[in-house]
Amino acid sequence: MTAAQTLRNADLRHTNGREEVLNLFLDADHALSHSDIENGLGPDHDRVTIYRTLRTFVDKGLLHKVLDDGGNPKYALCRDTCASGHHHHEHVHFKCDNCGQTTCLDQVHIPAVALPEGYNRKEMNLLIQGVCLECNK
Ligand SMILES: [Zn+2]
Ligand SMILES: [Zn+2]
Ligand SMILES: [Zn+2]
Question: Whole-prediction pTM value?
Answer without folding.
Answer: 0.89
